[in-house]
Amino acid sequence: MFIVGLSGLTGPKTAVRGNWIAAAGMGIAVLATLISVRDTATVNWILIAAGLAVGVLLGVPPAKKTKMTAMPQLVALFNGVGGGTVALIAWAEFIETDGFARFTAEQHPTVALVVGSLFAAIIGSVSFWGSLVAFLKLQESIPRKVEASLVKSAKLFQVCNVVLLLGAVAAAVCIGLNAGRGSPGWTIALVLVLAGIMGLFVVLPIGGADMPVVISLLNALTGLSAAAAGLALDNSVMIVAGMIVGASGSILTNLMAKAMNRSIPAIVFGSFGGDGGADGGAVTTTEQGAVKATSAADAAIQMAYANQVIVVPGYGLAVAQAQHAVKEMSNLLEARGVEVKYAIHPVAGRMPGHMNVLLAEADVDYDAMREMDDVNGEFNRTDVTIVIGANDVTNPAARSDPSSPIHGMPILNVDQSRSVIVLKRSMSSGYAGIENPLFFLNQTSMLFGDAKKSVSEVIEELKVL
User: Fold this and answer.
1) In what order do the strands lie in the sheet with 419-424?
2) Residues 465 and 304: beta-carbon distance below 8 Å
3) Is a pLDDT exceeding 60 seen at residue 131?
4) CB 283 within 8 A of CB 361
């Protein structure tokens, strides 16, 4: 059911069904685990029921109430909880066996218990604390100046991470070598603390532009740690579920890294960019020259008489919750015979598939959502491209400027369109913290303001044309 559910996530039309199937599979796994408990005399069913109730109360309300703009944060937080759970399981096994001092032939093989528990303790702790930092970054709870200074201190963090990793592994090896004789409780605590600090130090200096890849990587690590815990507990469901999550997360991480033309080590150890500057007024001049401001009326006229319009969504669309307005605008254009397509960059937004989910929520036809490789050949014959809150994924410096931090990253070839309209609150830089030359091209005009309000104004102008 996990595998069938995962296969359903390949498209919006089957995603909901896939989620329900996978959730039902997990429900069966939990029920089967409770039924399989043999020695009911030592099981505190009240504690188990209380734990289930707490999990439901903590899990369901956030999932129901969280807006799509905050979905990346929720994913990071839930993923972190999974890693933390695995770390606690490893700790519990250490306590249960008196520091791996006693075993029974019917229980667990010594090697699987010790190695699986220690691996789960390290990776689970890294995933938990790293995911918390990712959550704070996505929530923008870390001040921009602090985040910028953390990014600049990346090399210092890297040195500390090497020391922390060696320390955690050394402590784990000592515990393993003493298996059978038992290790004091502080040794496993040391492993968890060192791995936890490493989780913090790994993610703290990584810039905001890399957060989607980081979330995917942490998700993969959580899956691998769960599989290791499954080996320790001799639990087939944890092994299967953990390996599915670990494998799919690893594949997704690799695909996203390739979409940025960067290696995973380069992202983890050589991040770039923090959050862009705070939104200000409609600044119209920078070092690169002047930008042209436009109005909703002019934008409506351009699109109404175009043959093809491409919409490029970004995180600004998510912040403004403008997806429904964009869908209404597209309906009006299509009613006039204009072909409308949506260009989706693999790392647009702040988590994998963020833009696809937003547009699907507004009932945008899945066939109209075009992946980067499929749509890039369309821009040079497109009359108008409207960029809504996207920045770094449309930056032509990635192709033309070898000194740019994002040089070599595949982008949407928006600059090849006959006309480009950029919806943006201000001239502040994007998530990578660098300026976008697209805004200064002759065919580009800027429509400043909140994306939802700007699109609504364009809709009103289209209605009167």
Assistant:
1) 369-371, 339-344, 308-313, 384-388, 419-424, 444-448
2) yes
3) yes
4) no
Count of other CB atoms within 10 angstroms of residue 41: 5
Work out the average pLDDT over 54-79.
85
Decide: helix, strand or coil at residue 308. strand
Q: Give the list of residues 6+ apart from residue 318 with CB closer than 8 angstroms, or none.
A: 68, 69, 349, 350, 354, 355, 358, 389
pLDDT digits (tens, 9 = 90+) for 181-222: 778 889 999 999 999 999 999 998 887 667 778 888 999 999
Query: Are residues 281 and 426 in contact, defined by beta-carbon separation less than 8 angstroms?
Result: yes
Token pair recorded at residue 375: 């749509």
CATH 3.40.50.1220 fits 285-464, yes or no: yes
Structure pTM? 0.75
Annotated catalytic sites, by residue? Answer: 392
The pLDDT, as a whole number, for residue 155 is 85
> Helix (H, G, I), strand (E, B), or coil: what is residue 24?
helix
Amino acid in position 127: S
Question: What is the domain partition of the chain in residue ranges?
Answer: 66-269, 285-464
Dihedrals φ, ψ of 286, to 5°?
Answer: -145, -170
Residue 272: is its pLDDT beyond 70?
no
